[in-house]
Amino acid sequence: MAILEVRKYPDDVLRQKSGPVEKDDKGLQLLIDDMIETMHASFGIGLAAPQVGVHKRLIVVDISHYDEERDLLVLINPEIGLAEELVDSEEGCLSVPEFTAHIKRAGRVVVKGLDRDGNSIEIEATGILARALQHEIDHLDGVLIIDRMSAIKREFFEKRHQKALKEAKD
Ligand code: NI
Fold first, then answer.
1. From ligand 1's centre to the CA of 141, what distance in Å?
2. CA of 95 to the centre of ligand 1 (A)
3. 38 and 3 in contact (C-beta within 8 Å)?
4. pTM (whole model) above 0.85
5. Distance, CA 84 to ligand 1 centroid (Å)?
6. Domain 12-169, what fold?
7. H or E stretch including 80?
């Protein structure tokens, strides 16, 4: 297993839409293990394959730190079925470090997909798990928290980002 490099904004890799995982994907199990190790090493609660430069519809989520009844989740080709209630909550992302924003998301979702052995699974989630799942699935479509924050907050983010780039150059 290995800790992979987590790609950071504004890396173009984060903006590409990912394709479905194929049945005979030989590197899949290793990729899953590496993503889990990378997520834990980064103290993240979720990670999507494009964040490590792989454009496959694969996410890992681990909220056991917040809710010990929830096990580590590996979801292949996840799809959001039901999404209801709009909740505003603070959110961060390993690809947008040192930044959080309030983002509106569904408070309850049902997500369908495959587990790492290819079995169909369906997850009903609320709270932080619902939020993490929607966040990671966004990554599969090239969507970042920056796209979901308010215009004012986004402007603030862009200014701060430009300033940081300039400081890095000086
Ligand atoms: Ni993220």
1. 12
2. 6
3. yes
4. yes
5. 21
6. Peptide Deformylase (3.90.45)
7. strand 73-93
